[in-house]
Each structure stands twice: as C-alpha cells, then as structure tokens.
Amino acid sequence: MNLVIAKISWSTIGSRGILFTIIWWILADGATTSWWIGVPAIVLALITSTALIPPTPFIWHEFLRFVPFFLLHSLLGGADVAWRAFHYRMPIAPSLIAYPLRLPPGMPQVFMANTLNLLPGTLSATLDQTVLTVHALDGRKDLLSELETLEQRIAALFGVTLSTSRGNE
Question: What is the distance between the alpha carbons of residues 91 and 80, in angstroms, rounded to a whole number?
Fold first, then answer.
C-alpha cells in the first residue's frame, strides 16, 4: 500500500479538520469536557482520512445548491413511492438499469451511488469502474434522464467536466 500524504494540501487538512471538529462537537452535544478525548480522535481521523482518502476537490457553494435539489427529488420520490404503495393495483415494474458513468472513479462515483440509495424508488445494485447498475421500482419511468441530471449535479460538486459520450454507448 503506497500512501501519498505529500500531496495533501493545507486547505485539505484544514477543511477536514473543521469537518471532523464539527462532527465531534455535534456528537459530544457541545460538552467542553469531552475535548480531552475529542482532540486525539480528530487528529486520528485526520491521519486516517489523509492516508485512505485522496484529496478530491469539493465545491461547497455547489453543495449548497445540491441540498435543495436533493430534498425536492427525495420528497417527490417519497410521494411517488407512497402513491404506489397505497394504490389498489400497486403499479410497479421493477427493473435493473445499467447506467454508464462519466464521473471519474473514486469519491464522485461513490457519492453518486450513495445519493441514489437515498432517493426513493432507486437503489444502487452494483458499481463497477464505468457502470452503475440501478434497481428501480418502475423501469417504465424515464430514469435515464434523472440519472443524468444527478450525475451532472455531482460533477459540479466535485468540479468535474463530464464528457459528452458515454463509456458503453
């Protein structure tokens, strides 16, 4: 295992340190007496994260634009799932859809797969190097355009420019 710690910038360490500090503060419910164990835990989290997770650009103002997008789609998807569950015919048509990814491997692809799991009616089944297999409650819906929109939003989050062609087309 080759650790690349030399390429970690101070801004990466600072942003991760702030993130881990906020997480600890929330977990400790703001108790100042917990910092005697919190500081070593934060330092250990910083060392571990820099060794295991390579620095990935993350554009915070895009994240602020992503949150309302995610909440709206989650709400609409939840309403759709509830409608299907209470409908007397239960109109579902489960299917697996292979979606060729244009996001680079690593955090952007993992973020997409995990975000997709949180949107009702979809579930990431497998994530290969270039293909995300998605389980959908209704394969008759235009899921490909929804996946493409989500991929574009996540590309903006990570500062990635998507190619116009797909890997498996």
Answer: 11
